[in-house]
Specification:
The chain is mainly alpha-helical. It is built from 6 helices and 3 strands; from the N terminus they run αααααβββα. The longest helix is centred in the N-terminal third of the chain and has 50 residues.
């Protein structure tokens, strides 16, 4: 197995780890929203059937409106707590595995050094200027607004049938859009922190690593932005930095940098000096 192959194997594990994080958040989200969403879907069905909304449904919708923000506050707490834990673990795992993989391909007696990293600071670093927590909060606002407008249809039936149907449908769709937005954040942030931890390891071992190789995850989801960069090598400077674009390049980006070591003779000479 080559160093690239070892890095690829770990990245395959990381994609599975992402899926586990998404599944955990899905379960938490559905637990909080299932009953509320089910009642809104029942209202949608009655409107579609041309039937009046019952007094009981109207009263329940009024109660749901009062609880809506607290429900999403609990959803936010579940999401942020789960994602924080998953990101911390992703960083810790990347630091350990990347150092171990590099060590396996160094001459006998030479091991890679693990960098001193402030994990909490790395996890809270912004992606393209915006933190993941701010992204989660931003995605909540339109969701709550649309859901609330849908519940108003049951409480105050001044809207026409067409407008009522549109508002209720928008409220239901907002929940799906919000969940998909959260999934993008989860996947993108796990990739980001893993890449940043790997880069920190490469910088710490710049006396044995001379460059990084851009590797795209090649399948039917590989985008036109990432595909042309696959296997491009970027030399590292004395500080351990390189000219390659920061990863992830875009939401759901699965690209990463694999380390490229010096030759055995160069490593022995550099470690002796």
């Amino acid at each position: 197995m080559s160093l690239v192959s070892a890095t690829l194997a770990h990245r395959r594990w990381l994609i599975g780890y992402e899926n586990g994080a998404v599944n955990a958040i899905t379960r938490a989200y559905q637990k909080r929203i299932r009953a509320l969403l089910g009642r809104l879907e029942a209202i949608e069905q009655r409107i579609a059937d041309g039937q009046p909304i019952t007094p009981a449904m109207e009263a329940q919708a009024a109660r749901d409106r009062l609880r809506l923000r607290s429900t999403y506050k609990r959803i936010r707490t579940d999401i942020t707590s789960t994602l924080q834990t998953r990101l911390d673990t992703a960083v810790e795992t990347e630091l350990r595995v990347s150092a171990r993989n590099i060590s396996a391909f160094l001459p006998d007696g030479i091991t890679a050094r693990a960098p001193a990293v402030d994990i909490r600071q790395l996890v809270t670093n912004p992606t393209q200027g915006i933190s993941w927590l701010a992204r989660i909060d931003a995605s909540l606002i339109p969701t709550i607004q649309n859901f609330d407008a849908a519940l108003v249809v049951a409480v105050d039936r001044g809207a026409s049938m067409d407008d009522a149907a549109r508002l209720v449908s928008a409220g239901i769709n907002a929940v799906g859009k919000h969940q998909r937005a959260i999934y993008r954040i989860v996947r993108t942030e796990i990739q980001r922190v893993s890449n940043e931890a790997a880069q920190a390891t490469y910088r710490e071992n710049r006396d044995v690593i001379r460059a990084v190789r851009y590797l795209a995850t090649l399948d039917d989801r590989t985008c036109k932005i990432c595909m042309p960069l696959n296997k491009v090598v970027y030399e590292m400077d004395e500080g351990g930095f390189h000219a390659g674009i920061a990863l992830p390049q875009h939401p759901n980006c699965r690209c990463f940098y694999a380390p490229v070591t010096y030759s055995v003779s160069e490593i022995l000479q550099r470690r002796r000096s």
